[in-house]
Design goal:
- The structure is a single chain.
- It is elongated, with a radius of gyration of 18 Å.
- Strand 7 and strand 8 form a beta hairpin.
- The strands form two sheets. Strands 1, 4, 5, 6, 7 and 8 form a six-stranded antiparallel sheet that branches. Strands 2-3 form a two-stranded antiparallel sheet.
- Helix content is 12%, strand content 50%.
- The protein contains one helix and eight strands, in the order E-E-E-E-H-E-E-E-E.
- With 113 residues, it is mainly β.
- The model has no long low-confidence stretch (mean pLDDT 95).
Length: 113
């Protein structure tokens, strides 16, 4: 299994969003019926960097483009707070920008597999 590259820890805040695994139907009389859509709720993690050195940015972009091919391949990522290994895939790449000489800012959205 591929692992996330060893680069600087992401900046805070680290956003976590649980997936809504329910489906709802509203009827004409105003009542609502709901049920589970999936058997489990996956987590989405928004990780971002405010000052990622150019060398680490190059490593990250190589990983995204040439190792996991954006969202094609899942990989193991270590949650920076808990240390728990989670199998994820990249579901969104924010625009990275060069803030100061040799330092980038930007982020990724990672979704549990």
């Amino acid at each position: 299994m591929i692992s996330f590259p060893n680069i600087s820890q992401p900046s805070y805040p680290l956003k976590e969003t649980p997936e809504d695994n329910s489906i709802r139907s509203q009827f004409e009389d105003g009542s609502l019926q709901s049920r589970r859509k999936f058997t489990r709720s996956r987590m989405k993690y928004q990780v971002s960097w405010n000052s990622l050195p150019k060398e680490e940015y190059d490593v990250l972009m190589n990983f995204v483009c040439n190792e996991v091919y954006w969202s094609a391949v899942s990989f193991m990522w270590t949650h920076p707070q808990t240390g728990k290994q989670i199998e994820v895939r990249i579901t969104n790449v924010e625009t990275f920008q060069l803030n100061t000489v040799d330092y980038y800012s930007g982020g990724l959205e990672l979704t549990e597999v």
